[in-house]
């Protein structure tokens, strides 16, 4: 009986080592995959906030010196538009969209969704080898959107609200 118990323990240990070894050999994501995952993740969070934040608070700004909630979203859209064009190889400058061209929450959310879809299509059509030379414009736009995501979290908190990603149902 002791021999069987010992043999079972050895077999289980060997199986555990085999599984751990096989899992350890999983390939790391490519630069393109990493960029795409990060771009999708931050934009999903920003879009969720844009859809969730009350329409009557889109003009909210913590102080007069900073952009309103809606204006921050239009600024993020500007970054995505830039990334889509630059990612296609166009010679482009970062041109700010005018927040006054958007009439309320519905138009801003629709424009944000379109900017994400357009930039994501460009990103997914970018040849893998381009990412071995440079991560621009993608790394810049991801960092930019993440910065403004943090800013929008503050807008939520100042209004006594919990951002969608911080709610228990999203964890």
Architecture overview:
By secondary structure, this protein is mostly helical. Helices cover 64% and strands 0% of the residues. The radius of gyration is 23 Å and the shape is globular.
Topology (elements, then pairings):
Blueprint: H1 2-24, H2 31-52, H3 69-87, H4 105-124, H5 130-133, H6 138-158
Report the CATH architecture: Up-down Bundle
CATH fold-level label: Four Helix Bundle (Hemerythrin (Met), subunit A)
**Strand share of the residues?**
under 5%
Biggest sheet details:
none
Query: Which blocks of ≥5 consecutive residues have pLDDT under 50?
Result: none
Specify the CATH homologous superfamily. Answer: dinb family like domain
Number of strands: 0
The CATH class turns out to be: Mainly Alpha
Shape: globular
Helical residues, percent: 55-70%
Task: Give the oligomeric state.
Answer: single chain
Measured between the Cα atoms of the first and last residue, the distance is: 47 Å
H/E element sequence: HHHHHH
Short structural description:
It is built from 6 helices and no strands. The protein is mostly helical.
Distinctive features:
171 residues, mainly alpha, Four Helix Bundle (Hemerythrin (Met), subunit A), 6 helices
């Amino acid at each position: 009986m002791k021999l069987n118990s010992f043999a079972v323990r050895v077999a289980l240990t060997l199986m555990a080592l085999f599984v751990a070894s096989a899992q350890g050999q999983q390939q790391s994501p490519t630069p393109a995959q990493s960029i795409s995952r990060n771009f999708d993740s931050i934009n999903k969070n920003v879009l969720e906030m844009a859809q969730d934040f009350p329409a009557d608070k889109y003009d909210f700004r913590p102080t007069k010196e900073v952009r309103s909630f809606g204006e921050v979203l239009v600024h993020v859209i500007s970054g995505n538009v830039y990334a889509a064009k630059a990612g296609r190889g166009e010679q482009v400058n970062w041109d700010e969209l005018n927040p006054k061209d958007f009439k309320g929450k519905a138009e801003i959310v629709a424009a944000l969704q379109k900017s994400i879809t357009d930039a994501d299509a460009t990103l997914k059509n970018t040849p893998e080898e381009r990412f071995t030379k440079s991560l621009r414009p993608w790394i810049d736009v991801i960092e930019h959107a993440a910065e403004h995501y943090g800013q929008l979290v503050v807008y939520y908190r100042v209004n006594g609200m919990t951002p969608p990603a911080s709610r228990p149902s999203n964890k």
